[in-house]
Each structure stands twice: as C-alpha cells, then as structure tokens.
Write a structure and sequence with these properties.
This protein is mostly helical. Helix content is 81%, strand content 0%. The protein is built from 15 helices and no strands. The two termini are 21 Å apart.
Length: 410
C-alpha cells in the first residue's frame, strides 16, 4: 500500500485500501465545500449586490458551524458508532448543497452553508475517529498523510474546476457538483464502511459526562500542544482561503481561471508536504516533523510580509510564499491530528471534536477579520499569514517539543 500500512484485515473487516480511500473521500468534503466556489466569491457578491464582508459570511458561518458541530458529532460517534454519523453526514451535506444551488437570497445561501458544514463535520469527525480506532499514532499519522495526499487533489483541481464552471454556467453550478459528489460518497460509505467503534460509551451524550470527557481531553498537555499547532497553521491557511480571491482578482486583476491556477499552486505545495510528512514521521517522529514544517512556514510567512512591505505587488508575492506555506502545512497538519488523538483510544471522537472546534473557531474569527480588514491592498492578508506562521514556529519549538511525546500511547 502507498501509505505504508499492512494490507491486513482488522477487527472491523476494513482492508487497508478501503480505509485509505474512504478516509480521503470523507476528508474531501470540507475543502471542496470552500475551494470549489472560491473563484465565484466576487461574482456572488455582485449577483446578490452585497459587500465583501457580507459574502465572507458564507465562509465564516461554514467554519464556525464546522467547529461547533464537532462538539456534538464527536460524542455522537462515541455513543452510536462511526457508521451512522458518517452516512447521515454525507446525506445532510448533499441536501444542503442542493439548497445552496437553489438559494434565492444571500441569507438562504448562508443558511445552506451552515447545514453543509454540519454534514462535512460529521464525516470528518467520523473518519478521524475510525483511523484512531484502527491504527497506532505513528500509523495513523502516515495514513492521514496518505489520505491527505489523495484529498489534496480536491483543492488542487477544485478552484480551476470552479472557475470553469462559473464562466460556463454560473456560481450555482459549483454546488450542483458538490451535491452529486456527496451523494456518491454517501452510497459508498453506506455500502463499504464497517463499524469500528467497539467501545461505545452510553454516557457520551449526557451533559455532565460529556463535559467531563472534554475536560479530561483538554487536561492532556500533548493534546493541547498538537491542537494549538494545528490551529496556528490552519489559521494562516484559512486567511489565504478567505481573502485570496478578492486580493488576486479585485486588487491584482487576475481572472477567475488564473486565480484557480494560483490557488492550485499552494495546494501542490500541500501535496508535496504530505509526501514529505510520511517519510519524516517514519524516520524522525511526530515532534521533529512538526518542527521542520514550522521552520519552513515561518520563512514563507516572513518572505510574504517582506515582499509586500517592499512594494512588490504582483501575484507572485502572494502565490510563491504560499507554495512553501502549503508544503509546511502538509507536514504539520496530519502529524498534529494524529498526535492530538493519540492519548485517547476510547474517546477519539471527543478528542478530534475538541481539536476541530478550536481550529475552526479560530479560523472563523480569521475569516471575519479578513473580511473586515479588506482595504483594497495586500497588507491585511500578508500580515495575517505572517503572524500565523510565526505563531506556528513558536508553538512547535516550545510546547510541541516539551509535551508532544505520545509514543507510549501507541
């Protein structure tokens, strides 16, 4: 197998290949929900005659809901199992995509994005918990990296496909594609996925035990270290996701198709990073992999800020540093996900939910900030990405190095 996993049947009956491809497919729903329609954001603003800050809510409400719903989806998967959470989530995502496609107002579109986020969140939480059910921390990190390599083709091709769909049809066509893809994934999950939660917790949805579980998770120094690492790197990435279309299309004058190519450049870096991640985790472990990625990320963020400060206002001043930021993100994110869940073999759903909540809440605030700070220049975007990259490096070389040893939990 390409992910280095033994091709063995496990207690769930899932083969290594089935686990890898289902994990990748479920992980795709989140980036597709944002990246496929990114080139259409300026067009949506024009269509509904609303400002940048208003249309940004279609992104911010998505990530805010995605984060908050994890606090519910995680315990649901611990109580009832991964299978019903994943299948139901894919069906909700499909229905929400159809609603977004037909939205008559920006308010309905924002509401559809809220429902879409709940569906995508359920699928991702279930996928992460399935991997923790079946793999050790090191194996899980390598599988996440392999799944992320496959998943990265969604954001790699998504903006380009979205741009062509927008030009040929309209912004609504992106949501039609999302509805079709999620329906196919729901069928695949329903027919191929096997239940992996062998230790269901009947108390998982009761408020006091739920809060107690989250408190126990939050008390883990390793969980906190890996969660803030994942949050910092994703915060910078989401600044680019939420602001790049307006900066590149409106400020720098690139076309929607050219924007798709620019976005794909960053995703190509991410794909390369996931390949590097697999090798580094196997040879050097989780902590050193994150430190290496964070050092590269800091260099990329600083370079972008310095180029903009020096008056270099071409697309390359944003796109070139983001290529290397993407490499670093591909090294950090899969590793941090596996490390955060490692101490919790019997409450992986709650652990991944709390980690995702922190990540997405932060990202939603970043999205609101990018919309509010938009001033027709490159400065807000570049400085925000730089700040996130420096925070990522600081976290990696302090708390991840101090508290990130999870080998004993394998």
């Amino acid at each position: 197998m390409s992910d280095g996993q033994p091709a063995r049947p496990d207690a769930s009956g899932l083969s290594a290949a089935t686990l890898l491809w289902l994990t990748a497919g479920l992980m795709m729903l989140q980036p597709l929900a944002t990246d496929l329609y990114l080139p259409t954001l300026p067009g949506i603003a024009t269509y509904f005659d609303v400002g940048v800050a208003t249309v940004q809510w279609t992104l911010s409400i998505f990530v805010a809901t995605f984060g908050a719903w994890q606090l519910v989806a995680g315990p649901l998967s611990d109580r009832y199992g991964r299978y019903p959470v994943v299948v139901t989530g894919a069906l909700v995502y499909c229905a929400a995509s159809l609603l977004a496609m037909l939205a008559p107002t920006i308010e309905v579109l924002i509401g559809a994005r809220l429902l879409q986020a709940a569906g995508a969140c359920s699928c991702l939480v279930g996928a992460r918990a399935i991997v923790r059910d079946l793999r050790s921390p090191a194996e899980g990190a390598r599988l996440f990296a392999s799944a992320s390599t496959i998943m990265s083709f969604a954001p790699l091709l998504g903006p380009l496909l979205g741009a062509y769909l927008y030009v040929a049809f309209s912004w609504r066509s992106a949501f039609a594609v999302l509805a079709a893809f999620s329906l196919l994934l729901a069928v695949a999950a329903a027919t191929q996925l096997k239940e992996t939660n062998r230790h269901r917790n009947p108390q998982a949805l009761r408020l006091k035990p739920m809060l107690r579980t989250y408190m126990n998770v939050a008390r883990s120094p390793a969980f906190r270290a890996y969660t803030v690492s994942a949050t910092a790197t994703y915060g910078g990435l989401f600044a680019f996701i939420s602001g790049s279309s307006f900066v590149l299309i409106r400020v720098l004058g690139t076309s929607a198709v050219a924007f798709g190519a620019a976005f794909a450049t960053m995703v190509a870096g991410y794909l390369i990073g996931t390949l590097i991640c697999r090798q580094l985790v196997a040879s050097h472990g989780l902590q050193k992999t994150i430190c290496a990625g964070a050092a590269l990320q800091a260099a990329a963020g600083l370079t972008m800020a310095l180029l903009v400060a020096a008056g270099v206002y071409g697309p390359a001043s944003i796109v070139a540093p983001m290529f290397f930021y993407g490499i670093a993100h591909g090294m950090i994110q899969p590793t941090a996900q596996a490390g955060a869940m490692a101490p919790f073999p019997h409450s992986a759903g709650a652990a991944t939910a709390l980690m995702g909540f922190v990540m997405m809440l932060t990202a939603s605030l970043v999205g609101v900030w990018i919309g509010a700070s938009y001033d027709g220049t490159l400065f807000p975007l570049a400085l925000t990405i730089c700040a996130a990259s420096l925070a990522s490096a600081l976290i990696a070389f302090t708390v991840v190095r101090w508290h990130g040893d999870v080998a004993a939990h394998g």
